[in-house]
Amino acid sequence: MSDFVDRVTVHVKGGDGGNGSAGVRREKYKPLAGPNGGNGGRGGSVIFVADANANSLLDYRFMPHRNAGNGTMGLGDTKDGSQGDDLILPVPIGTVVFEAKGKEGEPKRPGAQLADLRHAGDRYVVAAGGAGGLGNAALANKTRRAPGFALLGEPGEERDVILELKSIADVALVGFPSAGKSSLIAAMSAAKPKIADYPFTTLVPNLGVVKAGDMRYTIADVPGLIPGASQGKGLGLQFLRHIERTEIIAHVIDCATLEPGRDPMSDYYALENELGIYSDELELPLGAIPIPERPRVIVLNKADVPEAKELAEFMKPEFEKLDLPVYIISTASHEGLKELNFALAKLVQEMRADLVKREEQEEQERVVIKPLETPRGRMRGNEPGFTIERKQDGNGNYWFTVRGEKPERWVMQTNFDNDEAVGYLADRLNRLGVEDALRKQGARPGDEVRIGRGDREVSFDWDPTIAAGAEMLDGSQLGARGQDLRLQEEDTRARRRTNTERRRQYHEMMDARAAVRAAMMAEREAGHWADPSKDDDRHDTQAILGRGEMADDADEAGQDSDE
Predict the structure, then answer these.
(1) Which residues contact 317 (CB under 8 A, 6 or more apart)?
(2) Known binder of ligand: residue 331?
(3) Which CATH number fits domain 386-462: 1.20.120.530, 3.30.300.350, 3.90.1170.20, 3.40.50.970?
(4) Less CB within 10 Å around the terminal CB: N or C of the chain?
């Protein structure tokens, strides 16, 4: 069983963000000194990186589920939680990332292309980590001075992707089955592919590194190319994509075949026809050379057979008339391999320089369109940033569905077990205009409203009177939306007094003092106050001048007992 894997489906998930903390700072004689809950840590991301040391996608077939690290929860004393570790996944150079399409439980098929990792070090964040929730210290402001809630961390992005390896080689060997492509790679490099005398021996592409003097280049064979391969016949369609990243196409033609109706020229035109059909439906990356424009080299193989060598020498002028370089070789006797090796090395060097110029030119000509800058938190023009749709089932039950990036993210951040957090969500939705839009759609208090998608959808009864803050101390609402009155009575600096208020409060204080003095004088004149210089209370043991009648009686009784 072969261990070459060039297409896999991978399930990736970014780390979840940590929840914010709703801590309270406590000081001596001050049980509520202010919020001090820290923010949650951000979750890690899943990142694909093109690595020159990776040569297969085999690891992802056996381990298709990859998750990044989660962020931790915030702590007290405004300590933020730690961030989750990013998951770096090395992939071979030439790997293309596609969106996975298909129903659950069915094989996935490639969708839109997400990334093309053509060079070593190219990175693509395939699943971003979730943002950490804000702690109550970050949620506090001049009107909400002691929030009793914090925001939850957002879940990390989760998706299925397809990794497809398009081998990057300098030279692609194409030809009919048993033309000697694998034998040519084994003769020119250290690769050891499977070689046998039956068709379709090579079931997977073979790569080999060839050295010509001080220069190195790679060659790869494309197995299973026969007429109709571009329409899926044989194994050709599965491996034709490996030609997309090659710079030179070498036709390996079997001059010793005994099949009727085949000759070197007909084999060449049959293979070129398949390449032309495949290239018409191919979207090449930036700076790539179209397949019809790539240089061709004709390799007439099996010259160790006398009849084959005679046929090759006879057909060589015919190919030269098409301006194609022709080399007569034998993989068995190594005849002509040295000339072919240095000729391919020179051609590869020229094509590499041409590719660099093409990529630079394409980068200069590329037009970058940037969206107009919009202040954060505002929508461009009259766009509200959300949509509301009224839906109804067959039983007459109806509900309102709210869709939009901000409402859906806010719902995921809300702890619905905390009434104050629910009120804060209502405040945010109201400022965004969701409540006004619901009213225009005909929603009434108590109607069902759904926000979110799929498993993250949240359903609740709409109550436009919910407000954030300390709301229910005596059963009635104490503040408007977004206000918190818990600290306003303790801190006199909550609002600066005006001069008029200062004068009014001063006169009220002086009038109160004058009224108290007048009342005390009236009580003294009426005889309600006793003279402290007279001991007129017989039972007052704490009298200033005397101890009272009961104390005198006790002293006399003590003297009698002594006598």
Answers:
(1) none
(2) yes
(3) 3.30.300.350
(4) N
Cα torsion 204, 245, 215, 302: sign:
positive
DSSP 448: E
Is 200 annotated as contributing to ligand binding? yes
- Annotated binding residue 203: yes
Task: Walk along the chain (563 residues) and give the pLDDT tens digit of each residue.
Answer: 345 567 899 999 999 999 999 888 888 777 677 888 999 999 999 999 999 888 778 889 889 999 999 999 999 888 999 999 999 999 988 888 999 988 877 888 888 889 888 888 899 999 999 999 999 889 888 878 788 889 999 999 999 999 988 766 788 888 887 778 888 888 887 666 555 454 444 556 677 788 888 888 888 877 656 554 444 444 444 556 667 777 888 888 888 877 777 788 888 888 888 777 777 665 665 556 777 788 889 998 888 888 888 888 888 888 888 888 999 988 888 888 888 889 888 888 888 888 777 777 766 655 555 555 544 444 444 556 788 888 888 787 888 888 888 888 988 888 888 888 888 888 888 888 888 888 888 888 888 888 888 777 888 787 776 655 544 433 444 444 334 444 444 444 445 667 788 788 888 988 998 998 888 888 877 776 655 555 555 565 555 555 545 445 545 555 554 55
The pTM assigned to this predicted structure is 0.67
Residue 519 in marked binding region: no
169-363 CATH choice from 3.40.50.300, 1.20.140.10, 3.40.30.10, 3.40.50.12780: 3.40.50.300
Determine contact, residues 316/326, Cβ cutoff 8 Å: yes
Residue 224 in marked binding region = yes
Q: Is 302 labelled a binding residue?
A: yes
Place of tokens 């004088």: 521
Residue the block writes with tokens 């004058």:
514
Residue 177 is labelled as binding a ligand? yes
**Cα Rg, the chain, nearest whole Å:** 43
Cα of 59 vs its chain's centroid, Å:
22
Ligand-binding site membership of 332 (annotated): yes
Return the CATH number of 7-165, one of 3.90.1150.10, 3.90.870.10, 2.70.210.12, 3.90.180.10.
2.70.210.12
